[in-house]
Amino acid sequence: MTRRQPVRPRSAEDDTFRPGFDYNEFSSWYERATNSRLEPARQTLVRLLNEQLDRELSDFDRHRIRVSSSRVKRPLRLWSKMQKPQYSSKIRVLEDVETVIDDIVGVRIVCNNLSDITFLQGILESLPSSDVAAQFSLALEPGSQKMYVNNPKPSGYRAYHVNLITIVPGLGEITRVRGELQVRTLLQDGWGELTHEDTYKPGVPLPPLVETLAKRMADLLATVDDLAQDIRLELDRLAQTDVESEIQAPHQPRGDEDGNGVPLRDGFPSPTVSKNLVLEEAARIVGGLERPAPLASLAAQLRAVFGAAPLRTWMGYPNFKSLLMDAVPDVNIVNVGPGYVIPRLAVPSADWPAPLRETYNAESE
């Protein structure tokens, strides 16, 4: 337990940062806190977030949302932040630091698209609340969510922020430690990397031209983010149409294809894909599901293994759904929205899409 330092007198007219400790005392506290709580909390947050993503996302979609970096704020950075007016008036003793400053421990997640941020937000909101749950390994701090994606800061900064709470065991007690999670798209993260370390110096105002150019860059990348989201939605729509469409007529090979529609390589057919091998892989993918998966996602996983050309005609089946039902005769497919495969022994939960949850419950009654 850190010894509480006496509060030094402070006049009402004095707005300078004069806590009840000096930098040497702060530095000693920081080293102890980092070794005992902050660094263990950083490692725990990274591990638990990765485990949560592994559980919630399929292997095919896992690369879209990933923990990219983490850190414990360096002592000089933390000391500088403590001197800002919105924090300095609240910090009188060393124990106040972790209560007032919420990003001493920081973790960053990078997503491919804007819709990935929305999806991840739903996953995080399903975590227990830190002010309600008595026991937890990872919890959400109520009221800590900040959506800078749709409401960027004046600088142009865009991201989704939320505070997470984890526990760190000690010799005599278990301590709750708070960490800030930042979630950005690839482009938002690129803007942050290009502008933050290159231009941000605590206590030093930026030249107006730098602020203007950084804001302009942020706005341009936000437009590109919207375009990338439109591309993804269209690709998802085409993938879903492909999965649902019936194959009406045999494919007529072109001059650069063999009789199965597989491209020729140097004038010779590509290796033949066994129908049984495709069915076995489909059964393996379905058997490994822990949460509902869209049919289009499962089809994409198969094509990632065998290539698009061999599965162009779904190995002779009318459509992908027929192939899947032959591979896994007892597969549970719910025909709502894009169509979902439901894992065995699955129990509807808050992270399921609402239409899927409602349809599944109705069919189970």
UniProtKB/TrEMBL annotation:
GO terms for biological process: guanosine tetraphosphate metabolic process. Coiled coil: none annotated. SUPFAM superfamilies: Nucleotidyltransferase (SSF81301). Pfam families: RelA_SpoT (PF04607). Residues 70-206 form the RelA/SpoT domain. Keywords: Kinase, Transferase. Residues 243-269 are annotated as: Disordered. GO terms for molecular function: kinase activity. InterPro entries: GTP_Pyrophosphokinase (IPR052366), NT_sf (IPR043519), RelA_SpoT (IPR007685). This is Putative GTP pyrophosphokinase. It comes from Micromonospora viridifaciens. The lineage of its organism: Bacteria, Bacillati, Actinomycetota, Actinomycetes, Micromonosporales.
